[in-house]
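Apologies for my clumsy wording, but could you write out the amino acids of a protein and the tokens describing how it folds?
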Amino acid sequence: MIGVVDYGLGNVQAFITMYKRLHLPAMPVRTAGEVEAATKLILPGVGAFDHAMDLLNASGMRDAVVASATERAVPLLGVCVGMQMMANGSDEGELPGLGLVPGRVVEMKRLNTAAVLPMPHMGWNDVEAVGDASLFRGLQDGLKFYFLHSYCFACDNEADVLAQTSYGATFACAVRRGNVIGVQFHPEKSHHFGAGLLRNFAEL
């Protein structure tokens, strides 16, 4: 069962609906016990980093999410701010992240020519897989996903970068360290590309 972590932030129902269309079992999880029962986890998120961390910390599920990923090697997919929460911390806030993928979240306008472009980075953009392509398996060339963000993930280790995109500057839009995966874009809003990615995650 795929558990979508419902800690009060992110469009949980959009993931459930997409998996229903794919005829794959998924449900929201709202307690530590439900997190522990899931065989795969999705951590959604929108908005500000500290607000997201506060809500996850208060939900009683943070330790269960981390333990599932680190001790039981449950596949975990972080989406948008859910991906950013996997870092050690963020320039957007002061709270520590989950520390599942070494790195820091940085403001995009600090990246080369991205400073002269409108923020947030919003809309469809091309994505290039640069690491293990299993998350994008079966998707035709010309990957495109929907983005909405002003901060991005700067990996400590280049080997953790799974895919990249460009908006003034090239940045990591997907990361992976073992069973822990993060995507900055929104697969639940990315039509057949997003559906294919979520199917591939379910089959990992």
